[in-house]
Structure formats: structure tokens, C-alpha cells
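Marked as duplicate of an earlier ticket. Keeping the data here for the record.
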Amino acid sequence: MKLIGHSDIVNLQLDPARMWDWVDDALRHKDEMLMPAKISIHSEEDRFWNTMPIVMPTFGIAGAKLVNRYPHREPTLDAKILLYSNDTGKPLALLDGNYITTMRTGAVAIHSADVLAVPRYTSVAMVGLGNTARAAILVLAHKHSDRDIYIKLVKYKDQHIRFAERFRGYSHLHFTYCDSLEEAVKGAQVVLSAVTVFHEDAVRPDVFDSGTTLIPIHSRGFMQADLVFDRIYGDDTDQVRHFKYFDQFPYFAEVAQVLNGEKFGRISDDERILVYNIGIVAHDFYFAKKILDSVQRAQEINISEPEGKFWV
């Protein structure tokens, strides 16, 4: 069994555009997987252990992802992925899950935008500028290097300046700064929110223009939009079924159903669409298998560790 740490994965210099493809392929095979709800144990008030098992027969893998939280540890949240062969039952690898979680979350957000936003969108608004936001824009930059994209960042301390600086090497990305989320979403075809906590709605639903696709990566801050947007999508029905207004959604389908032609996606450039990707462990394991394959290939041909720019 291989041990694959964070630096091992970073040193592979994986192309972020390929991660978009991994997200897409995993979703297209979602119905073939055995993926029960996560098991959550709260040992103390501020500690938890979450276990997410999965069997993916199509890809020959199975295992479990373990996430725990210890408030005085650095990092507070930690994730590990135990990857097995579904054919033999033998363990294949224990991988760092933090890098994988961040990158697959960012890739999923851009994938949803590409599937459900107006075709060849060029205007994006972003609020919440941490690791997940950087991962999303990194995937966007590599997946759509063929067109100029204008990104409005909501100001927060100096994060917006440092965020734009990290992407200065991508000449097709153009950043501007906004004083408020309300200012940023006006005119944006895609709105990405990577804020982890909103205690109330961040902006009124009527602020969003027709044709907007709203993707709250951490699902917070846009509850009133559940009632007035034209269509709502998610990565897994059971993960949003408990939402306050789920029974009042005007239309709901899983993104996988859209990909497989079972349900409609966007049917008009005027529709306002909301996408809730809570996160499915299938993506973590698809990434883990691809990373294991890359590690094995690199070792077989004795590739030295390169320096590159595919950071998070």
C-alpha cells in the first residue's frame, strides 16, 4: 500500500483542466456507485469524525474517506482517503485528502458553471477568496484558456489584491474589485460564493440579473433564491432534501441527470439557475485513483520532481 502525502500530489503538477474531466466522468457514472450517507460522530462539542464509504465497481475501487476536526490542531480540519481495489479487496493507497478535497470542490464548481450557465460565459463574480476559490479559478483558467474572462472580486481586507496577484500569469483573466457582493453580481453571468458562513442571506434575489447561474460552493447565504430562481440543481438529492424550501423548489434535478440526458438543464438564456454541490465522495475517490495512477507512472519512469505553477 502506498502512502501519498500532500507534497507528493503537488509535485505531480497535475493539469487543472484534467480535473474538470475527472469531475465530469465521475458524475456520468454516479448511478453505478454504492454511496451511502456519511457517518458523523461528535466526540465533543467542537470535535467530529466523519466517515464516507463508497464502492465504485465501474472504476474498480472502493474505500472510505475520513474527515476529523480538532480545533487546536493545524490544520483544524484534516482528511484522509483509504483507497482499496474493489476486485481484490486489497488496500492500494492512503492519500492526503485535503488537497484532493480542495481541488475537486473547485473543479465541481466550474463544471457546474459550464454545464448550466449561459454558453461561453465571460463574466464571473466571486466572494470568499480562500483555497477553494483559488482552486475554482485555477480550473477555470486552464479549462477556458481560449477566451477572456472578466472576474469581479468582492473586497475583503487585502485578500482580493493577493488573489488577483496569484493569477497574474494568466493573461486571459481580468480582475476588478467591488465594494459589495450586490455590486459584484450585477451583470455577472456566473456568481461563485466560497464563503463558509453566512448567518443570513447575503444579497436579495432580485439583485441577480436574468441568465445568472449562482453557485454557492458551501451552500450558505442564498436561501430566498430557492423560492424565486427558475431552476435548482444539486450533486445529490439526499444532500439537499433537508433544505428548508426543498419542497418548494420550482424545479430540481441532479447535475448527473442533466449529463445523462434524463433531466433538462438550462433551456433559456434568461433563466436564473442555482446549483448546490454539497460534495460527493465519488469525486474524492476518482481523483485519488487518478493520482495513484500518476504516482505509479512517475515512479516507473523515474521522473524527477518538477517545479511548476499548478498550486492551490
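See parent ticket for discussion. The chain has a mean pLDDT of 94.
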